[in-house]
Amino acid sequence: MNDFEPTSFTLNTIAIAHTPFQEKFAVPRQPRLAPAATGYIELLPPYDSAEALQGLEQVSHLWLVFMFHQALPDPDQPPRLRVRPPRLGGNTRLGVFATRSSHRPNGLGQSLVKIEGIEGCRVRVSGLDLVNGTPIVDIKPYVPYADCVSDARNAIASEAPEPVVVEWQDDVYQQAELIQQADELELIALVEQCLAQDPKPAYQTPSPERQYGTRFWHVDVGWHYPEPGRICINRIGRDSDSRKS
To answer: d(Cα 174, Cα 26) in Å, to the nearest integer?
Structure first.
């Protein structure tokens, strides 16, 4: 018999993640799958002091504990005990604790990122898989001897997904180069790395006419699937300009 009573806790946001991803669609499903996904973690009061980061220059990677703020559980609904992981096609159910689904009992997530630099109370990082504005509730250094398990296994997701082919329409690639140069963004690599993971739901078999799109920073990117397993990027522009073309 369980004699413990449920206990509630309060979590404070200690930092905010500034990332290229303005929408959930096309965000990498795991950290470090898109090395070009760079941004920074900005500490908030009362932690916004370089003192809180003292010693971090000796560390290469960080664990970010964050809130899935766009997928928080509804307290008036029964808890989700099983979820449908995108990795398994979106139709197979697994226990929530066997997955990294964003639908968590407490809305908490964990992400491993690489430190690219420290600037005052900001930490520049790469390999992000967080929507812009994600609340960070804790930051911890990666410890190789403790965090790396050489004989670990996960038969549900034993390897990274096989990437799809990503191509550019010629004029769209030229426009991407202009935006990348003018705005000093690593735009092309980021778009290619994220779309190679095939962001559409796995159960969909889209027709060549169906259009998809999302935003990276202030840039709208659109694509379609000329055939299964191949993406062609056919629209790009700053903000709403690309949607007018």
So the answer is: 22
Round to whole Å and give the CA distance between 231 and 202.
14
- Cα 5 from chain centroid (whole Å): 35
Looking at the fold, whether 142 and 37 belong to one and the same domain comes out as yes
Token duo for residue 232: 């062609």
Q: The pTM is what?
A: 0.90
Concatenating the DSSP letter of every residue in 184-220 gives: T--HHHHHHHHHTT--S-TT----TT--EEEEETTEE
Q: In which band, very low, low, confident or very high, does the pLDDT at 179 lie, cut at 50, 70 and 90? A: very high
Residue 84 lies in a domain: no
Averaged pLDDT, 43-69: 97
Task: Report the candidate in 177, 215, 157, 181 with the shortest Cα–Cα distance to residue 33.
Answer: 157
Q: How far is it, in rounded angstroms, from Cα 82 to Cα 84?
A: 7
218 and 112 co-located in one domain: no
Using the structure block, give the residue that is written with the tokens 């697994």. 94
**C-alpha atoms less than 13 angstroms from C-alpha of 152 in its C-beta half-sphere:** 10
Number of domains in the chain: 2
Edge-to-edge strand order for the sheet containing 230-238?
A: 165-168, 230-238, 219-227, 212-216
Residue given tokens 């898109």 in the structure block: 34
CA 49 to chain centre: 26
